[in-house]
TrEMBL record:
It comes from Aliirhizobium smilacinae. Residues 9-113 form the Nucleotidyl transferase domain. Gene3D superfamilies: Spore Coat Polysaccharide Biosynthesis Protein SpsA, Chain A (3.90.550.10). The keyword Manganese does not apply. This is Nucleotidyltransferase family protein. It holds the Pfam family NTP_transferase. It comes from the Bacteria. GO terms for molecular function: nucleotidyltransferase activity.
């Protein structure tokens, strides 16, 4: 697979952002500015940089504002998956979004997680993930980050990686990994999924049981802004990487 061969993506952006109140009382979480840039734009830029041309983004909270922002975003053809009538959770939102794209291999990204500090002149994290994914032996390939390269994270240890690149839920080991919010999968994986709300973690666990959940470790620093207190921490990391401090 060539590094830029994945041209479609689904971005999950419909959450309520309740832990980020009171900021999210007046705006959707994906539009909260981090170092002067809406949170979702970090992910959209990463997709565009990796060669994506078509993206579906689901919306719910302040949906009109999300639609207006996405319509003005210049680098991708964006289709909105409307969840105004009811949230579909991560799995249901993904299945609904995939129906708006052509069948095939896609990126899946969370709108409120992003990274900075990739190595200049090298393939991006998403391009590396695309090149790594092998649908013959993998249900999904996940981008992961070592716990000590996260900012704003609650400390939860998600996965551990074996020598063959397979992921399992974290039990022990010196290098706990956090799910970095990016997946490569074939859309057919969700063909048998329910049409109502469900959590995508169900599919993570199914893939682990079959030995078909794989992952790579990302380059750079990973940032999540789940609470108001995490915002200045995130901006400090971004400033440090941009050479402003």
């Amino acid at each position: 697979m060539t590094l830029a061969s994945i041209t479609q993506a689904v971005v999950l952006a419909a959450g309520l952002g309740t832990r980020l109140k009171p900021i999210t009382d007046t705006m959707p979480k994906p539009l909260v500015p981090v170092a002067g840039k809406p949170m979702i734009d970090y992910g959209l830029d990463a997709l565009a940089d990796a060669g994506v041309t078509r993206t579906v983004v689901n919306v719910h909270h302040f949906a009109d504002r999300m639609e207006a922002h996405l319509a003005a975003y210049p680098r991708l053809e964006i289709t909105v998956s409307d969840e105004r009538a009811g949230l579909m959770n991560s799995g249901g939102g993904l299945k609904k979004g995939l129906a708006l794209l052509d069948p095939g291999i896609v990126y899946v990204m969370n709108a409120d997680l992003f990274w900075i500090g990739e190595k200049s002149g090298s393939p991006t994290n998403l391009q590396r993930l695309a090149g790594y994914f092998d649908p013959e032996m993998m249900d999904m390939a996940l981008l992961c980050v070592p716990l000590d390269h996260t900012t704003g994270h609650n400390g939860k240890k998600d996965f551990q990686l074996d020598a063959d690149g397979r992921l399992a839920r974290y039990v022990d080991g010196e290098r706990p990994l956090v799910y970095a919010g990016a997946i490569v999968l074939h859309s057919a994986l969700l063909d048998d999924a329910p049409d109502d709300a469900f959590n995508l973690n169900i599919y993570f666990d199914k893939a682990i049981e079959k030995g078909r959940l794989f992952g790579i470790v990302m380059d750079g620093e990973w940032i999540t802004v789940g609470t108001p207190e995490a915002l200045p921490l995130a901006e400090a990391v971004i400033k440090r990487h941009s050479g402003k401090v």
